[in-house]
Amino acid sequence: MGYTITEKIFSVHVNGKKVKAGDFVYAKVDLGLGNDVTAPIAIDQFYKLGAKKVYDNKKVVLVPDHFTPAKDIKSATQAKILRDFAKKQKIKHYYEIGRMGIEHALLPELGLVEPGKLIIGADSHTCTYGALGAFATGVGSTDLAACWATGSCWFKVPQTMKFVYKGKFKKWVCGKDLILFTIGKIGVDGALYKAMEFSGPVIEQLPVDDRFTMANMAIEAGGKSGIIAPDKITYNYVKAQTADRKIIDKKIKKWEQFLSDNDAQYEQVFDIDVSQIEPQVALPHLPSNSVSVNRVKNITIDQVVIGSCTNGRISDLRIAAKILKGKKVHPSVRCIIFPATQAIYLQAMKEGLLEIFVNANAVVSTPTCGPCLGGHMGILAKGERAIATTNRNFIGRMGHPESEVYLSSPAVAAASSVTGKIIHPDNV
Amino acid sequence: MKIKGKIWKFNDNINTDEIIAARYLNTFDEKELGSYCMEDIDKEFAQKISKGDIIVAGKNFGCGSSREHAPIAIKGCGISCVIAESFARIFYRNAINIGLPIFVSEQASRLLKQGEQIEVDAENGKIMNLTNQEVYASDKFADFMQDIVNSGGLLDWVKKKGFIKK
Lengths: 428, 166
Hints:
The complex is a heterodimer of chains A (428) and B (166).
Chain A: H1 5-12, E1 24-28, E2 31-35, H2 39-48, E3 60-63, H3 73-88, E4 93-94, H4 103-109, E5 118-121, E6 135-138, H5 141-150, E7 152-156, E8 160-166, H6 175-186, E9 195-199, H7 201-205, H8 208-216, E10 225-227, H9 232-240, H10 245-255, E11 268-273, E12 280-282, E13 290-292, E14 303-306, H11 308-311, H12 314-324, E15 334-337, H13 342-350, H14 353-359, E16 363-364, E17 385-388, E18 404-408, H15 410-419
Parallel strand pairs in A: 2-3, 2-5, 3-4, 5-6, 8-9, 8-11, 9-10, 14-15, 14-17, 15-16, 17-18
Antiparallel strand pairs in A: 1-7, 12-13, 12-18
Helix pairs in contact in A: 2-5, 6-8, 9-10, 12-14, 12-15
Chain B: E1 2-9, H1 16-19, H2 30-34, H3 45-48, E2 54-57, H4 69-76, E3 81-84, H5 89-98, E4 102-104, H6 106-111, E5 117-121, E6 126-129, E7 135-137, H7 143-151, H8 154-161
Parallel strand pairs in B: 1-2, 2-3, 3-4
Antiparallel strand pairs in B: 1-5, 5-6, 6-7
Helix pairs in contact in B: 7-8
């Protein structure tokens, strides 16, 4: 009986002992990530545990990205707790304002994520890193504290649901549409406790930014992780993030073991024909309420948000710019665009994308999670409606409990910003 | 351990944004978070409940973000335990890790009604409806997790196991 990629990664992290889905393991962790919302609790718990030093100051990552640049005194205090801890513990991977980005876009960009790594983060979208063939999952602050103190974390090795995507994309369809469609098919608890393995000919050709988007939203189906087997696209991406490419060439040999065996056991296998999928929109108030954009009629919007750990990468901004070039945001709409990291921001500047956005009457913000979770930088008033490229449309997610969030790809969001109504990009 | 209290019923897919809205995540004070618990579903929830009351929910309770503020808020407002048909996994871990008692019981989730008094027998996994004397079973924790529960949470479990590096 063969092993899944997820079982293989766990085996490597429990000293090579072969493990199967359902086993409880106490596994070594390669990276333990926290942000300005979750790390203050973790730091408090870390000291309550009686720990003095983190297990490895190169394996702890701290990114103040949620309420930053600090929106109020309390948020500033939270961020300061991280800063002080980073200083005291000599944390190598602490990223201050001006050097940071939204954590799940930042870590891969910095070359911190590699195939076969085991990563935990006190943020539910930590599952993003599975796009590069790592096992990555969100945990709480106490789990993170225990990891920082001991270097390990307990897990139940998850069963895997395999999704095989075939067919040819229609125009404008991207990774976001695939994942919204998939969550719509299985529901917000359809993959509860499971690893979601994305595969098939469509995934083999899928650009890395779209892969990040798909793995990012595994949690919205209840998944423990999303994962894509590492391949040439992965290796080229990882190589591009490092100065020493020769090291990566050596590592690739090792990474080639992280593929699911042909006779690996899957809990379920889904075949999805992408040829039938139109650009998707998830209606309020669950990500699983996804429908074809053509079925969304006469929904006017007050705000458009393009960005986040789900869709704030350079290819997302390029699509938005392609649609907004030479056009204007509808007079009754506020369009807010968030490049996910400083590097993406700079790249967008070099390519002239920011100029296109500003000329279209959109605003461009510094990287922050702000509006996605209703933190700051774009809160909705009572009765207002937004379309966003973010990941959650729960009640009150972006502000007032009586506001609404619709989820979509950057193409649908950008097109809708022009018309003031949710619309198919072909119609702009 | 026996837990007795009045129940407050909730639907499927109660997410962590509903349990504690993100606008309050700039603190982790248990009492303060508790005062906002469930605010976006029921504005008066924290004021209405009595200490020791119990939340009974449907499927996938605690889905969404990893914020430990969610179980902290539930504890902070005085809720003694949560019973659900199923829990989202990060919430499930967080509750066990911080010592908020949780129980998985499809029967209790389906059959209990708003306002009924119940008694939860944690050791034997039994939930008794004190209104009609019906008894519902709750699922057993795996031994591995029961050990963490018995330790009172993850910190004490880690200490007990001697995992802290000196």
